């Protein structure tokens, strides 16, 4: 999570919403990314999506079974759906996102009968730092 | 939708789940794709995600305001989330997907207070053909 937080800080410094994500398999990082929707002109370029795509490319596999995803913010519906499709085993996220999250808020993707894979979910690790990054970022935009 | 159905048929012939998507802006196709999760080894490579990314790249814009998305199957949570992030104005889909859809099923993404953009939704156009493609594909795998 420390690396995900560093990626989030880099994204914030570059004018992107500060969120970072890391995919780990057997203790080794196989994918990492920061949110890059502006830089890439890609509305799907959330940190989780980019990290999952990087990990799948790295492992040459469509499914990231045995992988854990660390992300600094509660995933939105798009990213929670991608986590389920990728068969991520464990999801660790830092700050909750009452406004856009879809794990413990909104569509609660993993709780739906239409969700075909549910990762183990561990919220709250690094929460204070992740929330502070987001607060500072949005305060500076107002 | 006819083009999306043709893309879906191509995907099915290539061993991918047969779903196709087209993004249209002012009567012009700005992005098109078929489901390619296997070929690309990318769990996020649903037709909608690829078509949205192609359209955003083509228009050099993070937001696809004024665009319509035509897709042969009810979008899942990942794709519905992407449609909201991309600010797609109108969503046309062919077959409903009670098992994995997230528009009229499951997480009902656009109905959530955490959803920050709701497209107009028009289901059912080309439903019979889209459903037949999926039925034939899955029957051939059993």
Q: How would you characterize this protein structure?
A:
The structure is a homodimer of 142-residue chains. Chain A is an alpha/beta fold. Helix content of chain A is 37%, strand content 21%. Chain A is built from five helices and five strands, in the order H-E-E-H-H-E-H-E-E-H. Chain A has helices spanning 2-13, 37-40, 47-59, 77-85, 127-141, and strands spanning 20-25, 28-34, 67-73, 90-95, 120-123. Chain A has a five-stranded mixed beta sheet. In chain A, strand 3 (67-73), helix 4 (77-85) and strand 4 (90-95) form a beta-alpha-beta unit. Chain A is globular, with a radius of gyration of 14 Å. The interface between A and B is large, with 42 and 42 residues.
Largest beta-sheet details of chain A: 5 strands, mixed
Beta fraction of chain A: 15-25%
What structural class do the secondary elements of chain A suggest? alpha/beta
How far is the first residue's CA from the last residue's CA of chain A?
28 Å
Q: Work out the helix count of chain A.
A: 5
* Proportion of helical residues of chain A: 25-40%
Average pLDDT for all residues of chain A: 97
Give me the side-by-side strand order of the main sheet of chain A.
Answer: 2-1-3-4-5
């Amino acid at each position: 999570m420390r690396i995900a937080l560093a990626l989030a800080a880099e994204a914030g410094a570059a004018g992107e919403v500060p969120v970072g994500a890391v995919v780990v398999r057997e203790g080794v990082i196989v994918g990492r990314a920061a949110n890059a929707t502006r830089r890439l002109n890609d509305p799907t370029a959330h940190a989780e999506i980019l990290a999952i795509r990087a990990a799948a490319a790295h492992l040459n596999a469509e499914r990231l079974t045995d992988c854990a995803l660390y992300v600094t913010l509660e995933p939105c519906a798009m990213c929670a759906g991608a986590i389920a499709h990728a068969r991520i085993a464990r999801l660790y996220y830092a700050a909750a996102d009452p406004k856009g999250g879809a794990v413990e808020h909104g569509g609660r993707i993993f709780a739906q009968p239409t969700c075909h894979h549910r990762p183990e979910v561990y919220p709250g690790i690094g929460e204070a730092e992740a929330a502070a990054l987001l607060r500072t970022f949005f305060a500076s935009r107002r």
